[in-house]
Amino acid sequence: MRRGLKITLVAVTGAALTLSASACGGKKADSDDGGGGDKKSLKIGLAFDIGGRGDQSFNDSAAAGLDRAKKNLNVQTEEISAKPDEPDADKESRLRLMANKGYNPVIGVGFAYTTAIIKVAKDFPNTKFLVVDADQCKVEGANVSGACFSEEQGSYLVGAAAALKSKSGTIGFIGGVNVPLIQKFFAGYQAGAKAAKPGIKVLPPKYLTQPPNFNGFKDTGLGNEAAKGQLDQDADVIYHAAGGAGIGVIKTVGQAGKWAIGVDSDQYNQPAVAGVKQQILTSMVKHVDLAVYDFVESVANNTFKAGTKQYDLKNDGVGYAPSGGNVDDIKARLEELKAKIVSGEIQVPTKV
């Protein structure tokens, strides 16, 4: 069992919230006095995106960073998930609740938290805030940090992999919600595919929902149906950027004996897709865990800096997963393309 205290916050209805706490066996968490001269214990509040911990994709990558902080640093945590189609007021309410309870720093996972965090941070100038996937990579405030990712760079590499491994000559892309962030994934994917194999056919992107409906990041049924549609159009490699809904994509594509490409986490090792893991070609890994841990560590060490930080191929903020060995035969080509992106020889587009 993990040493220390685990505190979980659960949304009930609207902005109503209930708190439950349970202690694991072993020694109690260090007190704020930090016995023996330790630093004062940080109390981290983290608000997940839709799907929460357990989505086996974007949120779980954030959770891994939080878990690493609990393991390596003197911290306590509180976490909560978003609800589909909730108003910004609900996001503000949970952020304010955590800040009022003394949680510092406070983290919002997902671009949808950007506006709420900037607003709440003004009322809590002594609390440090992080928004993961800051909308348009912009934040405001002396106590606000934003983590941004070059998703298009990692997507370029998995697009190249898709084109090189396709036998039908047709590949597909399924995005969770039609927003600029997810459009970046497709732009990089298409560019990488066409660079690796100019004659490849890239189907028009399929977005599961349109904003303000964000259920496309959660509903596996929508992912399943979209995957069937692209398989029917002869796609034999399909890349998803759909969070939890992507589990439906992977299962459907895998069961059809075609290649699926995961996103955010290395999905080859996720329990939900264990039955079709051999059909996962690769995953575009987005190290949200690194961004969360870097931020917490900066607060703990008093090295926090406001503004945005970019995570890209150069600093291993994004990349592709080799798990399963399915890209071993084309890895040299992928590494060649990666080196050209890092050097600046290849400029990856963020828009189609």
UniProtKB/TrEMBL annotation:
PROSITE patterns per the UniProt record, alphabetical: PROKAR_LIPOPROTEIN (PS51257)
Tagged with keyword Methyltransferase: no
Keyword ATP-binding recorded: no
Gene3D superfamilies listed in its UniProt record: 3.40.50.2300
Source taxon at top rank: Bacteria
Signal sequence, start to end: 1-23
Lipid bilayer topology: Lipid-anchor
Family: Belongs to the BMP lipoprotein family.
UniProt-recorded name of the protein: BMP family ABC transporter substrate-binding protein
Organism field: Actinomadura spongiicola
